[in-house]
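Chapter review: from sequence to fold.
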Amino acid sequence: MPTRLKRPPFWRHVAVTVALLGFQGYLAYSAMTGQFGIESREDILADTAVLNARSAALKAQIDAFRHRATLFDPQRLDPDILDEGARSLLNMAHPDDVIVMIDEDTGKPKPSLQPKLTAEKLNAVPPDITGL
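The token string follows.
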């Protein structure tokens, strides 16, 4: 009795080949345009640079706060810092102080509201107000 070997159908080989090629195509597309793909690398590097700059600014701010906190250490209290804090809280100034008002928006000194004095006004002798 002759036996005949059954040959697998041709379409199975084609279907497996097409499925594997489709999967490779998906992987290639994902490697190019995916969230962590080649095209997204520039965005990731830009975000990293922004975050590094923000981190450096925050570290500088933390160091400034730590420095100011050490100045208020009770064992070595700086009288100048204490005097500055008291004056700013009380809105008072010493007569010998030079006060410069700073614009909060621009960070630059505000112009004076008083008229500028000329040399003749500065050198003028004030009138005698005692009446003697």
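Two observations follow directly from the output. The longest helix spans residues 41-71. DSSP finds four helices and no strands in the chain.
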